[in-house]
Amino acid sequence: TSDDAGTTVSGGSNPRPNAVSPPNKLPPPAVAPSEETEPAPEASMNMEDM
Prior knowledge:
Elements: H1 2-11, H2 15-20, H3 22-25, H4 27-37, H5 39-49
């Protein structure tokens, strides 16, 4: 997200639409499934192992 913010701030007019489409479609899907699928299984396995 910091890379996107820096690029959008440098641009000015183009960064607005670009920052709303890419970040809204890429970050949400990649962060939601990744965090829910990785931490969920890991926590379950750890608890069961113990």
